[in-house]
Amino acid sequence: MTKNIAISLFFTLATVALLGFIWFGQTYDRLEATNKREVALQLEFGQRNYEQYCASCHGLSGEGAGPGNAGAPALNSLQATKGPGTETYTITNGIQKKYGSLRNYVEAIITSGIRGTAMPAWAEQGMRGDQIQAIAAYVMAMQGGAVSPVALETAQDWKATEVAKLPPSPTPNEPPLDDPEADAGRAQFRRVCSSCHNVTDQPLVGPGMAGLFFPEGTKSYGTILPNGKEVNDANVLEWIKVGGGGPGVHPPAADAPVGGTEYGPMPGQAGIYTDEEINQIIAYLKTLER
């Protein structure tokens, strides 16, 4: 009798243990899959925001010295230059002491910018916390010269773009565009221009573009371009291609630049855009009212 009870108890415990093992394994697999999915979605979202806001200065793969800012630092080597084990990370009041981790440091820089440089405080420009976190995650994933194969594989496994179905980051002041050329210009504007220029009248790294082709002009420069020339198709084409403006260049408009704001010189984009693409951007700029 006692032997039968012992055998029954043994099989009961063995069954419970087996079921527990199966349950734990399935739960672990589900958690791992869920985590991979969340990582994939965040990286995909971070990539799209990075390309919209950061790539023109820091390069598509974080190599730095992008077309929008030749002095922008590389981001794909932060682990080697500022990560654990480097002097910048470990010194008194260094990154470890101030921020706790390199990831936190990246988020803080995106949020608050760096005074005295062209790096803006994106939080003050309306960038949301989830966008900042996603960009930081994407920057951390590109350490070593490119986005890590593991990160890319994860995103591809989950087909992140299709799964997320995330809309583009909201861009204010965009009316429905019936003109195909203006619609193409909007895409070109987002490609590089949007990292420095708002489509509202609010300044970013450079002046806001709203009103440029309207009678009142832009909030910062009125009806004159930052290089001092009047606004027309030919001059705007030249301005985008060649660049100009910057400290010491003040057009004779009473409200320009507003509050004495000094903008850095506009870098020429002739190596980035063709004349056809610039004309598309001009068509888009003509839709931006203040």
Strand residue percentage: under 5%
Average pLDDT score:
76
The CATH topology of the largest domain is what? Cytochrome Bc1 Complex, Chain D, domain 2
Q: Tell me the count of domains.
A: 2
Strand ordering within the main sheet: 1-2
Roughly how much helix do the residues carry, as a percent range? 40-55%
- Tell me the structural class: mainly alpha
CATH fourth-tier homologous superfamily of the largest domain: Cytochrome c-like domain
Output the CATH class name of the largest domain: Mainly Alpha
The major pleated sheet works out as: 2 strands, antiparallel
CATH architecture of the largest domain: Orthogonal Bundle
**Helical region count?**
12
Task: Give the topology.
Layout: H1 2-53, H2 55-58, H3 78-82, H4 87-90, H5 95-99, H6 102-112, H7 129-141, H8 149-157, H9 160-164, H10 180-191, H11 233-242, E1 243-244, E2 266-267, H12 275-285
Antiparallel strand pairs: 1-2
Helix pairs in contact: 1-7, 1-8, 6-7, 10-12, 11-12
What can you see in these coordinates?
The protein is an all-alpha fold and 290 residues long. The protein has two domains: 43-164, Cytochrome c-like domain (Cytochrome Bc1 Complex, Chain D, domain 2, Orthogonal Bundle); 180-285, Cytochrome Bc1 Complex, Chain D, domain 2 (Orthogonal Bundle). 49% of the residues lie in helices and 1% in strands. It has twelve helices and two strands, in the order H-H-H-H-H-H-H-H-H-H-H-E-E-H. The protein has helices at residues 2-53, 55-58, 78-82, 87-90, 95-99, 102-112, 129-141, 149-157, 160-164, 180-191, 233-242, 275-285, and strands at residues 243-244, 266-267. Strands 1-2 form a two-stranded antiparallel ribbon. Helix 10 packs across helix 12 (275-285) and helix 11 (233-242) crosses helix 12. The radius of gyration is 26 Å and the shape is elongated. The model is unreliable at 158-174 and 247-256 (pLDDT under 50).
